[in-house]
Design brief:
Helix content: over 70%
Radius of gyration: 23 Å
Keywords: Membrane, Transmembrane, Transmembrane helix, Transport
Shape: globular
Subcellular location: Membrane
Number of strands: 0
GO cellular component, one term: membrane
Order of helices and strands: HHHHHHHHHHHHHHHHHHHHH
Main location: membrane
Membrane topology: Multi-pass membrane protein
Length: 440
């Protein structure tokens, strides 16, 4: 073991984490400059050629470019579909058929948030769900702190879709494995379904508790509910079934035919959806520019994360760090190290951003666990949810939107949600181990 490489590797992780936590540097700059400096220092330590760093970067970017391409087409596709009103029409269809009560309001919050998160934008989930459901929470006297909590967990659940930015980040850690996002989606599907059932049960409990505390019966008509939905110039109610069928077709192809590049599946979907819904070419161009702005800095950050991974792996830093950990962590704990990290992921996320969790911690834990024959997809699945991100404004600054719209402080959200999130975290890990999803 080269102890100097190990120290350099840990120092690189710490520096990236600290500068991002303290907002001293942008993600793009951190993922470009810091690994470059670390790579040059690694070359000095090992006595290699400075020209090697170009090859390391090329190998790293090779692991992330296809995922970045998929993100460039999948996110605009779902934003377009959302703008046409597909998700609104689904929610309205549900609301027409239910009699509203406090438990139903809480369950509807989960359903609406899950549907809104299909487009992969956490900001839009809060901007749509909170204003829609808050008047109902107030009318039925449901604790307002429950609203951002339920939405936050729903977002975590729906991050497991093959086109979601979070799962695309995780997929980059699997190298050039074909269909990595779909593979992770299928692996995590039992966890996703379990969490959905668990969250709905919690929503019902919160609603029943609120109804029990109400002194008089409260009623809301379905017309009052539906009146909160407003059409825009992009709404296409007449295209509902066509858009739904196209989306179902794309998801089916994505999962059933992994030999087709996933970025091409959504490229095809995007151009077809644009042509179907908006015949004017100028309008299509305007919409593409609008959606393109949402890709920055997420897509470039995913691409440049390959620089971090490439330099850490190819320079020998990651291997040296793993050997150092193996010398420290008792061999009896080694095979379960990733599970221990997962059990404490809620408080641990207060020390990380989403990017440093995926690109600094997870590669190290995955490489360490590989020494005990734990496959990388098992480690990624186990550490994927990082529940604590939904109480960390550093990892998820959109939480300020949720609390401001709800009318509570961020401190109130953290105090209300922390122990509940950690409890769900532990229950989910136990379920994953018991079902074998989180085991080799």
């Amino acid at each position: 073991m080269n102890i100097y490489l190990a120290i350099l590797g840990f120092a690189t992780m710490i520096v990236i984490t600290v500068v991002l936590l303290k907002k001293k540097m942008s993600i793009l700059l951190a993922f470009t400059i810091i690994p470059l400096v670390a790579g040059l220092l690694a070359i000095l330590i090992t006595g290699g050629s400075p020209l090697l760093i170009g090859k390391w970067i090329e190998k790293g970017i090779g692991k992330t470019y296809s995922i970045t391409l998929m993100m460039m087409f999948s996110l605009p596709y779902f934003m377009l579909i959302s703008d046409t009103g597909l998700f609104d029409d689904i929610v309205k269809g549900i609301m027409r058929r239910v009699k509203v009560s406090a438990p139903i309001v809480c369950v509807l919050t989960v359903v609406v948030a899950c549907i809104c998160e299909l487009d992969g934008s956490i900001t839009s989930v809060f901007l749509i769900t909170v204003p829609l459901m808050l008047p109902l929470f107030e009318k039925f006297h449901v604790d307002k702190r429950i609203l951002p909590f339920l939405i936050s967990v729903a977002i975590l659940i729906m991050c497991n879709t093959p086109w979601n930015p979070k799962i695309l980040r995780a997929a980059t850690l699997m190298g050039n494995k074909q269909g990595a996002p779909a593979h992770l989606f299928i692996k995590l599907l039992p966890i996703q379904l379990f969490m959905l059932v668990l969250l709905i049960a919690m929503a019902v409990y919160f609603g029943l508790r609120a109804r029990k505390g109400n002194k008089e019966e409260v009623t809301v008509s379905n017309e009052e509910l539906l009146s909160q939905f407003k059409d825009t110039e992009l709404t296409k109610h007449n295209m509902f079934w066509w858009n739904l069928l196209l989306t179902a077709f794309l998801i089916t192809v994505l999962i059933a035919i992994p030999s087709i590049p996933q970025y091409f599946v959504f490229a095809f979907g995007l151009v077809v959806a644009l042509a179907m819904n908006f015949h004017d070419l100028d309008q299509q161009g305007t919409l593409l520019k609008k959606y393109a702005s949402t890709l920055f800095p997420v897509a470039p950050a995913v691409l440049l994360s390959g620089v971090v991974v490439g330099v850490m792996q190819e320079s020998g830093m990651l291997n040296a760090m793993v050997k150092a950990l193996m010398a420290i962590v008792p061999s009896a704990i080694g095979p379960y190290f990733y599970i221990i990290i997962a059990l404490f992921s809620t408080p641990l996320m207060l020390l990380f951003t989403n990017d440093t969790w995926f690109y600094a911690l997870m590669p190290l834990v995955a490489a360490f666990s590989a020494q005990y024959s734990v496959p990388i997809d098992v480690v990624i699945a186990t550490l994927f949810m990082n529940f604590g991100s939904m109480i960390s404004v550093i990892a998820q600054p959109q939480l300020y939107i949720a609390t401001d719209l709800t009318g509570i402080t961020i401190d109130e959200h953290i105090k209300f949600s922390f122990w509940k999130l950690w409890g769900i975290n532990i229950v989910v890990v136990i379920f994953g181990v018991a079902t074998g999803v989180f085991l080799p």
